[in-house]
Input
Amino acid sequence: MNELKLALLLSASAILFASCSQSQPEGALEAVDFTKVEITDSFWNPRVKTNSEVTIPHALNKCEREGRIDNFKFAAGIEDGKWRGNWGFDDSDVYKVLEGMAFTYNVNHDEALLRRMDEIISLISAAQCDDGYLYTAYQLRARDYTWVNCSYEKERYDHLVESHEFYNMGHMYEAAVAHYIATGKDNFLNVAIKSADHIYENFGPGKTVAIPGHEEIEIGLLKLARVTGNPKYAELAKLFMDRRGTGILNYNAYYQDDEPVLQQKYARGHAVRANYLYTAMTDAAILLDDPAYAAAVDTIWQNVTSRKMYITGGLGARYAGESYGDDYELPNASYCETCAAIAGVFWNQRMFLLHGESKYIDVLERILYNALIAGISLDGTYFFYPNPMISDGVSPFNQGASGRSEWFGCSCCPSNDVRFMSSISGYVYATSENVVYENLYVSNSADIRLGDRDVRLTQKTDYPWDGTVSTTIGLDRPTSFAMRLRLPLWAQGRPVPGDLYTYIDDSAEKISVTVNGNAVSYDIVDGYASVERKWKDGDVIEIELPMPVREVVANGKVEADRGYVAIERGPIVYCFEETDNGKVLEPHPDGSALGANAAEILISRTRPFKPSFDPGLLGGVVTLSDGQLTAVPYCVWNNRGDGQMTVWLKQ
Ligand code: FUB
Ligand code: ZN
Output
């Protein structure tokens, strides 16, 4: 890639931050920025509100009480004090919470929130060394006295394999970019630039050949490249990725270092690390217009979605090493870290932007509505780190707890929830030259720039409980373009793109689309119902997605699920909790139910499950009942106390 081409691409592309881009290369896909979409529904809106009103203050409070903010103060020399915390990468929680605050500020323009961000940013800025280095644990020589989990050395960059110095910086860059976009202020962005310049000078071309043990900085660098237009940050991100598999980390698969990334054909190692890497590789494929990167992520994506993904979209089978398992290794006592789910959404969003096909959003949706939001309680203050398919209600699967926890010693997941939940509106729409993609169905109103035209969309739906979605189009003058409405695979008789899961009854009704009440024929383009016409102000396009209750079976190669069935409706995967059904698991021969795959409930195919909306239950959900058994959405399990739970039932 020559520098000029890279610079041109840099100035013309955007992910999540469409408002930053100046122009759009012909046909390039852009996500409609989260600031342009106001969510108005009763599923996501309460969650986003809880995030801003409850979870952000909760996480900030935890960061304050556990010394994470003071550590910046001490490193800056503003006050005397010793580093306090659990892990050297504790700084990253502050960055992630700041990122969530920035996204939230863009929605509510709360001056107090802006001031609080500025206070923390001024500490971060003061803590940064003159040369750009920033990592409070080393700056405060934490290991000399308190660093409980420290197996690291003590000088900067002397143990990059585990210190997470670059991981911290990646989160800082993401937060700084979000803050810049949200506020227009460059106080945080300048800290990020100073750090990235410092890392480039020390580890860039011709300098020390090192890589981080935990990917993340690559994502941040690519965002920095976009927002500053400076190609050297993309160059550094690519360098860090291309150095993998050259033995720097002893060819260790845990760190995705056993092969060069372009030769990797399957997901391996620590799942969050892996998914952050694949996110960055996909972003680099887009930004640098690099077909080799695109081919590599296509192959890995195929492996993950057809062999390594849970029915909930959860990623990462093993507790050991928090890692991906082998092909079809999907035990129900699954790890499925919340961070891995969030990273899975990041990755699939970029896969969609790379290829424009709906199957990536299908996978994104499965992760989003199931594995990801299961990680946070409805009240916004309790969290899961792993997200298993089964729980015996007593085994301490959640970092020592048998249910949700308020925070963790390593609190990567709660702080990731904070930043993710405030950015959900950025996943609803995308555009290309003459096309609007409706990717997620959620009541909202959106202002979309399509070329030189403004398009206002107002979506109304009770999704995910009901499949009717109507979108009113607002225009200043009649305009020709294509509306592409995603045809979810689940509405076409298929749960996933590959054959990892199938519906027992895979029949599918025709999906109807109307314009102003009249049925229209549509083309199917890349998995979307595409209706191209000259739209006029007030036109209403409506899609009706049938939502029968579906029974799902896993591919016979998934040993854990042989003879078992799971239940879905629309994008929602269901589970059976003890609260509704009494004990749902057979005891394991060794006395514990967790780890067993057995569930004693026998599902009767002659008594089909019927949906009914219960407004008073779990924030308002559709439950499924066959008269004897009641299933609730997996995403809201363990909101009524600890107890047994299973997704899979014996057939
Ligand atoms: O190492 C940083 C984070 O902590 C990882 O991404 C998580 O898996 C947890 O181990
Ligand atoms: Zn995590």
